[in-house]
Every structure is written in C-alpha cells, then in structure tokens.
Automatic annotation (TrEMBL):
Any GO molecular function: S-methyl-5-thioribose-1-phosphate isomerase activity
Claim: Transport is one of the keywords in the record: no
Residues annotated as binding substrate: 46-48, 91, 198, 249-250
Active site annotation, chain numbering: 239
Coiled coil region boundaries: none
Annotated protein name in UniProt: Methylthioribose-1-phosphate isomerase
Native organism: Desulfuromonas thiophila
Lineage: Bacteria, Pseudomonadati, Thermodesulfobacteriota, Desulfuromonadia, Desulfuromonadales
Protein EC: 5.3.1.23
Family indicated by similarity: Belongs to the EIF-2B alpha/beta/delta subunits family. MtnA subfamily.
InterPro entries reported for this sequence: IF-2B-related, IF-M1Pi, IF_2B-like_C, Initiation_fac_2B_a/b/d, M1Pi_N, NagB/RpiA_transferase-like
Keyword terms of this UniProt record: Amino-acid biosynthesis, Isomerase, Methionine biosynthesis
Site note Transition state stabilizer, residues: 159
C-alpha cells in the first residue's frame, strides 16, 4: 500500500520528514500554521499536491487559533487571510499551494457568519477533504494514464511525483502503479535528481517499498540509456502547467524532455487539474524558485565544492509544450492543441467534491 506522507489524527497533522529518507523514517507532529509553513519551506514535505494539502491543514490550524480569540468577524477574516499569505510565501512555483489556500479562503469567507468554533471546524473538514480527494484524483489519473503505456516496457521518471509528493498513490508514479495493477509489466528507471536527490532518496525508496522494479541512475545517464534503446517512455509530474501546455517541473525535466524527443520516446506529464494555471498564457511567467546554494555545494555535511564558489540553484525549469506528448489529468488526457484541450478538461464536472 503506497505511503500517505501526511496524516491528520486527533487534531494533529503528522508528516514524514522527507529530508531524512531513505536513511530514517521520522514522523513529525504539527499543531500550528507557522510550523507547517516552515515544514513546506524546508521541504520536510514537498511535491506540488502535498504542499497544497499541508498548507490547507496549516490554514485550518490558523482558523482554530483565531476562533479561540474574541475577534470581530472582519478582523478574524483579515488575520486568517494574513496567515494564509504567510503559508503562500513558502514556495513560489507549485500552483497547488495557492489553489489549496484559495479554496480555504473561499470557504472561510462563505461561512464567516457561523459561530467561530463551527467556522473553524468547517475549515478543518475542508482540509481533510482536500487531502482525501487528492488520492482519489491520483487513482483516476492513473487509470487514464496507464492506457498510454505498453503491456511491457521501461519507463524513466525524474524527481519524485509519487505518493510522497501527494495525498497518496502519486501522479506520475500513480500512472505506473495503475499500469502494474492493470497487469502490465512495467519497470522503472529513476534518475537521482540532483541537487535534492528526490529520485535517489524518495522514488527509489517508495517503489522499492511497494515492490515495484526500480533501477537508479545518475542524472547524466538518461541520454545514454535512451541511445541504447532501453527507455520506452518518460513520465514526470508537474508543479505548474500554463494554458498552452508548458510544464514547470523539477530542474532537469527539460533536459530529459529534449533527450526524449531526440530519441523518439514519448514524454508524458501527469498532473491533477489543481496544477493547471489557465491564468498564464505560457510558461514564461511561471515563477522559478531558487534555493539555498548549500543544496548544491553539500551532500549532508559533506562539502562537494570549494568554499565561496558562485552557485546558481534553480529548483525548477519549464518544458515547452512542443516537447510534451500528452498531459494526463484525473478527468482525461490532453494531446497537442493544449490550449483548447486543457480548457476543455478544466471545464469538465468535478471528479469529487470541488475538483
Ligand atoms: C506530484 S508533483 C511532484 C513535483 O514536485 C517536485 O518538486 P519538489 O520536490 O521541489 O517539491 C517535483 O517538481 C515533482 O515533479
């Protein structure tokens, strides 16, 4: 059973510290929005849908804290929005973070006439819904996406778009799980994904834990395996998809997409509709997070580069739509003409609840 990286039990949000995997499986307890914001910022929890879910629980904790104070409604809503902004400021690229917080703020406004404790209880239930819906969405995405994979083949994936990056089951890895559950013989090649090592530390751990055949390679080996004819398809997740189908994802995704096209290998993106940002015409406006240079110069406490060396550490890149063979969502698959097809998929009825 694929892991759920975020649990909500007895009013406590429990998250596995993904910075310590695979060496240590440590679950940390969170009871307030400030601590959850720090967990998102420091990547205790990471992955576009997962940080949206974590932020939703953070907003629920903020509501509970405000509901215990004797505040006028307008002031309570104002402070709630401020605390949601603090959560929104944690990481700029994954649009799921902002999608989840906007959903919480809409409910907060719509239910502001309720007694404060009932208001906060409704927001806690909404956060739990966002969490529970995500796994259902991933399973539906998996069903749509697995049809694109052959009965037998090797699929390369970059970063971790698995259960660890979501509310469970995964997006890209959810497609792989669904294909295997459909009886297909899929083995996975996971590249290490420097500098945060999501592939080596997280995807390899997650798939091995679930008994799925996975081979770890260095990032610079993907082209060689493609040249040898050992990769049949590539599938990755996404952090933000613009209206024309440009895809922001972990740094290195663009390089893999170019290699895939050069070798005639299909390059698939799996993402829930909460990752699609129709407000952006193309990927040029997607904010790209730059992270701590120490992620590049160190591996744990081991220094990998001379002190004082200049470092550039963008955490994401943008793959142009022309390199994307298909975009798999929970309500269907878009191919080519993404501007039209993504708009059509976004207009379909919710799969569950609000999404
Ligand atoms: C299922 S979305 C996962 C997506 O998020 C990752 O970024 P990060 O680990 O920095 O949060 C990466 O881009 C994955 O593809």
């Amino acid at each position: 059973m694929a892991i759920k990286p975020i649990l909500f039990e007895d009013g406590i949000c429990r998250m596995i510290d993904q910075r310590l995997l695979p060496a240590e499986e440590l679950w940390r307890d969170y009871r307030d929005d400030g601590a959850i914001a720090e967990a998102i910022r420091t990547m205790v929890v990471r992955g576009a849908p997962a940080i949206g879910i974590a932020a939703a629980y953070g907003a629920a904790f903020a509501a509970a804290a405000l509901a215990s104070q004797s505040l006028p409604v307008a002031e309570r809503l104002h402070q709630f929005r401020q605390r949601c902004q603090h959560l929104a400021a944690t990481r700029p690229t994954a649009v799921n973070l902002f999608w989840a917080l906007a959903r919480m703020e809409r409910l907060a406004e719509a239910t502001s006439a309720l007694a404060p404790l009932d208001w906060a209880a409704g927001l806690r239930q909404e956060a739990c819904r966002i969490d529970a819906e995500d796994e259902l969405i991933n399973r539906a995405m998996g069903r749509h996406g697995q049809a694109l994979l052959s009965q037998q083949g090797t699929v390369l994936t970059h970063c971790n778009a698995g259960a660890l990056a979501t509310g469970g089951y995964g997006t890209a890895l959810g497609v792989i799980r669904a294909a295997i559950e459909a009886g297909k013989q899929i083995d996975v090649v996971a590249d290490e994904t420097r500098p945060f090592w999501q592939g080596a530390r997280l995807t390899a751990w997650e798939l091995q834990r679930d008994g799925i055949d996975v081979t770890l390679i260095c990032d610079n080996m993907a082209g060689y395996l493609m040249q040898q004819g050992r990769i049949d398809a590539v599938i990755v997740g996404a952090d933000r998809i613009s209206a024309n189908g440009d895809v922001a994802n972990k740094i290195g995704t663009y390089s893999v997409a170019v290699l895939a096209q050069a070798h005639g290998i299909p390059f698939y993106v799996a993402a829930p509709r909460s990752t699609i940002d129709l407000s952006l015409a193309d990927g040029s406006a997607i904010p790209i997070e730059e992270r701590d240079p120490r992620e590049v110069t160190h591996c744990g406490n081991q220094q990998l580069a001379p002190a004082g060396v200049a470092v550039y550490n963008p955490a994401f890149d943008v793959t142009p739509a022309r390199l994307v063979s298909a975009i798999i969502t929970e309500v269907g698959v878009a191919r080519a003409d993404y501007r039209t097809q993504l708009a059509e998929l976004m207009a379909r009825p919710p799969l569950c609840g609000h999404v």
